[in-house]
């Protein structure tokens, strides 16, 4: 059996850490929960800890959040498919948009549902993912504000996710200029600039986020304590909110080099071996976890006496470095996981999901003290 656990106490610690940071800078922030893939157990746990808007890029996940907590404000953080307009209005209080035709469809549905649907207009800032070109903002905005039941609550941008373009003070100042230009032209205030994500946190800590950038969307740093900008970790945050555990199903001493003609394996690779290991053996353990469940490059044994050798669809092979280590069938081995590893595991029906350390956790609604 394999399972992934979410540690509530460590999640709460990370949430308080970020809440304190953002409150000191008078910045609002929302939690990006798409990593949880709509899992009800983990979503309930998250909602018991945080008191923030919840962002996701999957409509079914937002639907689940609304079922669990109707009062929670939900944000759809990618340009919606036009055909989903009715459901977007129903389950998302806010959506990120870059296509006028889609916003018109949202307007029609919001009118039918007697709702005001709020949108964030996404602007291209060099990442070449979603977003209108900046020189079209005034014309675009002029068309949007004509639409009934649509309210522009902000402008935003996305960086780092596709081409790895990093935020900097210059880009953020340019985004502030775009807001000022639009507000001056239309004599209408735009409340938020949603320009911050996990990658922008180090800039905030270093004083390089200009005043006026007032909304962040945070997922990875909350769950992993990562400094995405520098590809390291933030001091004071937990890295191991998640842990992956797999059961040992075989322990046998075997040759270190396979025998026979080598072809391509399951993943299309032709493994290479050090011929110095010919005629040598090592103690190996197999656990019930495979590439169907995880990317083996994104996990690592917490115990350094183990190393990952490879995996097939549903088994992962470990070398036991210290052969004096007592390992037997039925034992469990814990693995540290990256963002992508958790994402894969959360999408696997073969990996159980468990919550630990919940007994002393209380829902947090207070702002952290400055």
TrEMBL record:
Taxonomic placement: Bacteria, Pseudomonadati, Bacteroidota, Flavobacteriia, Flavobacteriales
Protein name as it appears in the record: Predicted amino acid racemase
Pfam family, one: Ala_racemase_N
Key word Isomerase present: yes
Domain Alanine racemase N-terminal: residue ranges: 7-225
Gene3D superfamilies: Alanine racemase
Top-level taxon: Bacteria
Keyword Cell inner membrane part of the UniProt annotation: no
Biological source species: Chryseobacterium taichungense
Named cofactor requirement(s): pyridoxal 5'-phosphate
Alphabetically ordered keywords of this record: Isomerase, Pyridoxal phosphate
Assigned GO CC terms: cytosol
Coiled-coil regions, chain positions: none
Gene Ontology MF annotations: alanine racemase activity; pyridoxal phosphate binding
InterPro entries per record: Ala_racemase (IPR000821), Ala_racemase_N (IPR001608), PLP-binding_barrel (IPR029066)
């Amino acid at each position: 059996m394999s399972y992934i656990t979410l540690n509530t106490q460590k999640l709460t610690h990370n949430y308080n850490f970020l809440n304190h940071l953002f409150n000191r800078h008078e910045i609002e922030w929302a939690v990006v929960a798409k990593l949880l893939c709509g899992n009800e157990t983990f979503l309930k746990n998250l909602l018991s800890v945080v008191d923030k808007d919840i962002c996701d890029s999957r409509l079914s996940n937002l639907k689940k959040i609304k079922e669990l907590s109707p009062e929670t404000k939900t944000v759809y953080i990618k340009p919606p498919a036009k055909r989903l307009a009715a459901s977007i209005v129903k389950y998302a209080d806010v959506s990120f948009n870059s296509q006028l035709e889609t916003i018109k469809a949202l307007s029609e549905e919001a009118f039918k549902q007697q709702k005001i649907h709020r949108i964030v207009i996404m602007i291209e800032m060099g990442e070449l993912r979603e977003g209108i070109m900046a020189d079209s903002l005034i014309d675009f905005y002029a068309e949007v504000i004509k639409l009934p039941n649509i309210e522009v609550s902000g402008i935003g941008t996305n960086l780092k996710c596709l081409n790895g373009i990093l935020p900097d003070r210059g880009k953020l100042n340019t985004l502030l200029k775009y807001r000022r230009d639009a507000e001056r032209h239309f004599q209408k205030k735009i409340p938020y600039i949603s320009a911050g994500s996990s990658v922008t946190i180090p800039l905030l800590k270093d004083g390089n986020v200009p005043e006026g950038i007032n909304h962040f969307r945070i997922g990875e740093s909350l769950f992993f304590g990562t400094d995405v900008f520098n590809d390291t970790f933030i001091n004071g945050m937990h890295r191991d909110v998640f842990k992956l555990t797999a059961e040992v199903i075989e322990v046998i001493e075997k040759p270190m080099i396979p025998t026979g003609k080598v072809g391509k394996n399951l993943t299309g690779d032709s493994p290479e071996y050090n011929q110095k290991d010919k005629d040598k053996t090592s103690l190996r353990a197999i656990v019930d976890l495979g590439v169907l469940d995880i990317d083996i490059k994104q996990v690592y044994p917490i115990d350094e006496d183990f190393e990952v050798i490879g995996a097939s669809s549903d088994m992962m092979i470990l070398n036991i470095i210290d052969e004096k280590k007592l390992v037997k069938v039925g034992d469990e081995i814990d693995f540290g996981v990256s963002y992508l590893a958790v994402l894969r595991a959360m999408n696997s029906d073969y990996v159980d999901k468990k919550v630990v350390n919940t007994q002393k956790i209380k829902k947090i609604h207070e702002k952290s003290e400055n």
